[in-house]
Design a protein that fits this description.
Blueprint: E1 18-19, E2 24-25, E3 30-31, E4 36-37, E5 42-43, E6 48-49, E7 54-55, E8 68-69, E9 74-75, E10 80-81, E11 86-87, E12 92-93, E13 98-99, E14 105-107, E15 112-114, E16 123-124, E17 128-136, H1 140-144, E18 148-157, H2 160-170
Parallel strand pairs: 1-4, 2-5, 3-6, 4-7, 5-8, 6-9, 7-10, 8-11, 9-12, 10-13, 11-16, 12-17, 14-18
Antiparallel strand pairs: 14-15, 17-18
């Protein structure tokens, strides 16, 4: 724990978690072993950060945006959220999902592609369930070789039943 880091009284932190200075910790955060939250990252209420997940902060450039994780988000093991990404309420990031400002997010349910813009960050929609995926390269030697690149993919959206089931499994209450 670094000097100047704020951790709310009801946060549950485990050994080997790394929490750097300057970010917001709100009530009922659950951090697992070896989770890292960078400086200036903002973590909402009732967020579960699984083992080996990394939530990047922002130190420079000066005008860069922090990573923001809204309330009731589940971040799976070995995830990485970087470069001013905004994860909306009740989203689920499956194990190994990597989100950055430069990575497009493919929504298989709605048929959209989400990207960061010069005015705003990459936004993960509310209740989205995001898993690691891949996209085939369609030009040049990479296409001829059958190479594909990593990309995060939305495969579904959480419903009320799944939310209640998730709360039961993690021990999170629906209230503060």
């Amino acid at each position: 724990m670094r000097l100047g880091a704020y951790v709310a009284p009801s946060c549950n932190l485990h050994a080997a978690d790394v929490h750097q200075r300057g970010r917001l910790r709100r009530r009922r955060h659950y951090g697992r072993s070896h989770a890292l939250v960078g400086s200036c990252a903002q973590i909402g209420k009732r967020v579960h950060i699984s083992a080996a997940a990394q939530v990047g902060g922002v130190l420079e450039p000066v005008n860069a945006a922090p990573v923001i994780i809204e309330d009731d988000v589940l971040i799976g093991g070995n995830c990485g959220i970087y470069e001013g990404t905004l994860v909306r309420t009740r989203a689920v990031l499956g194990a190994g999902t990597i989100l950055t400002r430069s990575t497009p997010l493919y929504d298989l349910v709605r048929g959209e592609i989400y990207r960061a813009t010069s005015e705003g960050p990459l936004e993960v929609p509310e209740c989205a369930v995001v898993v690691p995926g891949r996209a085939a390269v369609k030009k040049g030697a990479a296409a001829e070789s059958g190479i594909s690149l990593y990309t995060p993919v939305i495969v579904k959206y959480r419903d009320e039943r799944q939310t209640k089931e998730l709360n039961w499994k993690t021990g999170c209450a629906d209230s503060e």
